[in-house]
Each structure stands twice: as structure tokens, then as C-alpha cells.
Amino acid sequence: MQRLPKQLAATELTTSTVVQYTAPANTRTTVSAASVTNKTGTARYYTVTITPLGGSARYVAYQLVVAAGKTVIVTGLIGQTLDSGGVISALAEANSALDFVMSGYETNP
Description:
4-stranded antiparallel β-sheet; mainly beta; 5-stranded antiparallel β-sheet; about 110 residues; 9 strands; about 0% helix
């Protein structure tokens, strides 16, 4: 069994829900770190969901506010595990306001 560290996402969030990461085939992924940084002078919120393959989206962070110029840890993601085909999606209150960065481990049989 091989367990590899990997940056899972590093992107600017938009107001549309966008898949940030999909667990590859024959892989289990565990999130080890996730943060959201507000690059603007106005407080903005973000939302993050996890969806198992064939399942329904479930919130791990719903409209949580990041103060202007601050970075927060997305604690609801830390330790979450996705099986193959599971996805993590995110959105922001405003385009070009929030950066989303996530790291974890992919485990292959």
C-alpha cells in the first residue's frame, strides 16, 4: 500500500459551486490541511461540500465568514476521507475574493 502526500487544490473560488478535487480510481484520499484566504478589504463567506460517489453533497462548511485580509483553516475538512470518485466542492460569496488551498494523502492499494 502506497500513501502519497499531495496538494489537492490551490485555486481562486467563484460564486458557482465548482469541484475542487475528485478522488482518483482505486484511491482513498484523506485531507490533512485546508485553508481559505480573503484577498479583499471586505469580509466574505465560503461554503465547502463533500459528495461520495453516487451520494448527495453534505456541507462541511456552510457560509463561514473570513475577515478581510485573513486566512482561516477549514476545520470541517481536516481528517475527512474520500473513496474513489468522491468529490470536494467549494464556492465563495464573491468572485476573485477567496483563495482555497487543500493538501492530503492519496492511498493506493
